[in-house]
Design a protein that fits this description.
Layout: H1 3-26, E1 30-35, E2 46-49, H2 63-78, E3 82-83, E4 90-110, E5 131-151, E6 156-166, H3 169-173, H4 175-187
Parallel strand pairs: 2-3, 2-4
Antiparallel strand pairs: 1-6, 4-5, 5-6
Helix pairs in contact: 2-4
Domain DUF4136: 31-191
Keywords: Lipoprotein, Signal
Signal peptide: 1-26
């Protein structure tokens, strides 16, 4: 085997392992949640949305806001809450963010040197060890969605759910479905079950 072949082979192995790692992360976001002490979310009956949602910019409702509102409304009504614009007991706010990240992978490979004069040793033994380092930078996008549930009367956060994960191409191309899926995954942690 020659040096360029081995170099390409190790580069291919490194890229494949990174792709598998990223693909594994893309199967589902990492979800976590937190509940305020002594809070019984089943005791509330109505919900609404904050007047100024964190996903809105420049004074208009963004598409992200519309997708999140639809998904959250479906989850809350499935749990027996009723949507109300007039003094809801729970107010919901959410935020989303997409950021570019990079991972640097270094692999060390042992390759056969070009022998020249020592060609007669090729295949039986090596005159010296030769190690080469391959450095690859993998760039990817990570999306984060936060959902806050606030007690409107006390103006206090009572529950929050957070999802973070690597964005795959499907999520970028179909944001409505991706948002609905993420909201569903977050609400799997919500203390009140679907009815």
């Amino acid at each position: 085997m020659n040096k360029p072949f081995l170099s390409r082979m190790w580069r291919g192995v490194a890229v494949l392992s990174c792709a598998l790692w990223l693909n594994a992360c893309a199967f589902g976001p990492q979800v976590r949640s937190d509940l305020a002490p002594d809070t019984n979310l089943a005791s509330y009956q109505t919900f609404g949305f904050m007047n100024e949602l964190a996903t809105d910019r420049q004074g208009y409702t963004s598409l992200v806001t519309q997708h999140l509102k639809a998904a959250v409304t479906a989850e809350m009504t499935a749990r027996g809450y009723r949507y109300s614009e007039q003094e809801p007991q729970l107010l919901i706010n959410f935020n989303s963010n997409v950021e570019q990240r990079a991972d640097i992978r270094t692999t060390t490979s042992s390759t056969m040197p070009i022998y020249g004069y020592y060609h007669y040793r090729r295949g039986f033994y090596h005159p010296f060890a030769y190690h080469q380092q391959e450095v690859e930078t993998i760039r990817y996008k990570v999306g984060t969605v936060n959902i806050d549930v606030v007690d409107a009367a006390r103006q206090q956060l009572v529950w929050e759910g957070i999802a973070e994960g690597v964005l795959n191409q499907k999520a970028v191309e179909q944001p409505r479905e991706a948002m609905a899926n993420v909201v569903n995954r977050i609400f799997e942690r919500y203390p009140v079950s679907r009815r």
